Amino acid sequence: MTHVVTESCIKCKHTDCVDVCPVDCFKQGPNFLTIDPDECIDCAVCIPECPVNAIYAEEDVPADQKAFIALNAELSKLGWPTITDKKDALPDAEKWKDVPGKLQYLER
Protein backbone atom coordinates (compact mmCIF):
# COMPACT_ATOMS: atom_id res chain seq x y z
CA MET A 1 0.00 0.00 0.00
CA THR A 2 0.93 3.63 -0.38
CA HIS A 3 -0.43 7.01 0.54
CA VAL A 4 -2.08 9.39 -1.89
CA VAL A 5 -2.28 13.17 -2.15
CA THR A 6 -5.75 14.23 -3.26
CA GLU A 7 -7.45 17.27 -4.73
CA SER A 8 -7.37 19.38 -1.56
CA CYS A 9 -3.66 19.97 -2.14
CA ILE A 10 -4.15 21.67 -5.51
CA LYS A 11 -3.43 25.41 -5.33
CA CYS A 12 -2.55 25.10 -1.62
CA LYS A 13 0.62 22.97 -1.54
CA HIS A 14 1.28 22.97 2.17
CA THR A 15 4.50 21.11 2.83
CA ASP A 16 4.19 20.17 6.50
CA CYS A 17 3.99 16.54 5.33
CA VAL A 18 7.40 16.48 3.67
CA ASP A 19 9.19 17.44 6.87
CA VAL A 20 8.13 14.22 8.60
CA CYS A 21 8.54 11.79 5.70
CA PRO A 22 11.33 9.32 6.56
CA VAL A 23 11.90 8.23 2.95
CA ASP A 24 11.53 11.48 0.99
CA CYS A 25 8.75 10.20 -1.27
CA PHE A 26 7.11 13.57 -1.98
CA LYS A 27 7.54 15.23 -5.37
CA GLN A 28 6.84 18.92 -5.89
CA GLY A 29 4.93 20.26 -8.87
CA PRO A 30 4.00 23.87 -9.54
CA ASN A 31 0.83 23.82 -7.42
CA PHE A 32 0.54 20.28 -6.05
CA LEU A 33 2.52 17.63 -4.20
CA THR A 34 2.48 13.97 -5.09
CA ILE A 35 3.64 10.83 -3.35
CA ASP A 36 5.79 8.41 -5.31
CA PRO A 37 4.13 5.03 -4.69
CA ASP A 38 7.43 3.24 -5.33
CA GLU A 39 9.10 5.16 -2.50
CA CYS A 40 6.30 5.41 0.09
CA ILE A 41 6.68 2.92 2.95
CA ASP A 42 3.12 3.36 4.22
CA CYS A 43 4.18 4.81 7.58
CA ALA A 44 1.27 7.31 7.72
CA VAL A 45 3.19 10.04 9.55
CA CYS A 46 2.28 12.52 6.80
CA ILE A 47 -1.49 12.18 7.20
CA PRO A 48 -1.97 14.20 10.42
CA GLU A 49 0.50 16.85 9.25
CA CYS A 50 -1.61 17.98 6.28
CA PRO A 51 -3.64 21.06 7.26
CA VAL A 52 -6.13 20.52 4.42
CA ASN A 53 -6.61 16.76 4.91
CA ALA A 54 -5.35 15.95 1.43
CA ILE A 55 -3.45 12.74 2.25
CA TYR A 56 -5.03 9.32 2.61
CA ALA A 57 -3.92 5.73 2.80
CA GLU A 58 -4.67 4.24 -0.60
CA GLU A 59 -7.44 2.04 0.78
CA ASP A 60 -9.08 5.05 2.46
CA VAL A 61 -9.16 7.43 -0.52
CA PRO A 62 -12.73 8.74 -0.86
CA ALA A 63 -14.65 7.39 -3.84
CA ASP A 64 -14.70 10.76 -5.60
CA GLN A 65 -10.89 11.01 -5.27
CA LYS A 66 -9.90 7.52 -6.51
CA ALA A 67 -8.46 8.97 -9.73
CA PHE A 68 -5.72 10.52 -7.61
CA ILE A 69 -4.24 7.08 -6.93
CA ALA A 70 -3.20 6.75 -10.57
CA LEU A 71 -2.49 10.48 -10.85
CA ASN A 72 0.04 10.38 -8.00
CA ALA A 73 1.81 7.48 -9.70
CA GLU A 74 1.82 9.29 -13.05
CA LEU A 75 2.94 12.67 -11.74
CA SER A 76 5.68 11.21 -9.57
CA LYS A 77 7.34 9.96 -12.78
CA LEU A 78 7.30 13.34 -14.58
CA GLY A 79 10.63 14.39 -13.19
CA TRP A 80 9.25 16.72 -10.54
CA PRO A 81 11.91 17.29 -7.89
CA THR A 82 11.83 15.54 -4.56
CA ILE A 83 10.92 17.91 -1.74
CA THR A 84 12.28 17.21 1.73
CA ASP A 85 11.98 20.51 3.62
CA LYS A 86 8.93 22.51 4.58
CA LYS A 87 8.29 25.63 2.52
CA ASP A 88 5.59 28.26 2.65
CA ALA A 89 2.24 27.28 1.19
CA LEU A 90 1.14 28.99 -1.99
CA PRO A 91 0.19 32.65 -1.39
CA ASP A 92 -3.54 32.14 -1.85
CA ALA A 93 -3.73 28.70 -0.16
CA GLU A 94 -6.23 29.87 2.44
CA LYS A 95 -8.62 31.00 -0.31
CA TRP A 96 -8.41 27.63 -2.09
CA LYS A 97 -8.35 25.19 0.83
CA ASP A 98 -12.08 24.35 0.83
CA VAL A 99 -12.79 24.79 -2.89
CA PRO A 100 -14.08 21.57 -4.53
CA GLY A 101 -13.45 20.59 -8.14
CA LYS A 102 -9.86 21.85 -8.35
CA LEU A 103 -8.49 19.16 -10.67
CA GLN A 104 -8.87 21.54 -13.62
CA TYR A 105 -6.33 23.84 -11.96
CA LEU A 106 -3.60 21.22 -11.55
CA GLU A 107 -0.41 22.40 -13.24
CA ARG A 108 1.88 19.75 -14.63
Annotated CATH architecture: 2-Layer Sandwich
Strand content: 5-15%
Question: Using only CA atoms, what is the Rg?
Answer: 12 Å
Gross morphology is: globular
How helical, in percent, are the residues?
Answer: 10-25%
Q: What are the segments in which pLDDT stays under 50 over at least 5 consecutive residues? A: none
**Topology order in helix (H) and strand (E) letters:** EHEEEHH
Q: From the helix content, strand content and strand pairing, which structural class follows? A: alpha+beta
Strand order of the largest sheet: 1-4
- pLDDT averaged residue by residue: 97
Describe the structure.
The chain is of the alpha+beta class. The protein has a single domain, classed as Alpha-Beta Plaits. The protein is built from 3 helices and 4 strands, in the order βαβββαα. The chain has helices spanning 16-20, 67-76, 93-96, and strands spanning 3-5, 26-28, 33-35, 55-57. The mean pLDDT is 97.
Sum this structure up briefly.
The protein is α+β, with helices and mostly antiparallel strands.
Layout of SSEs?
Blueprint: E1 3-5, H1 16-20, E2 26-28, E3 33-35, E4 55-57, H2 67-76, H3 93-96
Antiparallel strand pairs: 1-4, 2-3
Please supply descriptive tags for the structure shown above.
single chain, 18% helix, 108 residues, Alpha-Beta Plaits, alpha+beta, two-stranded antiparallel ribbon
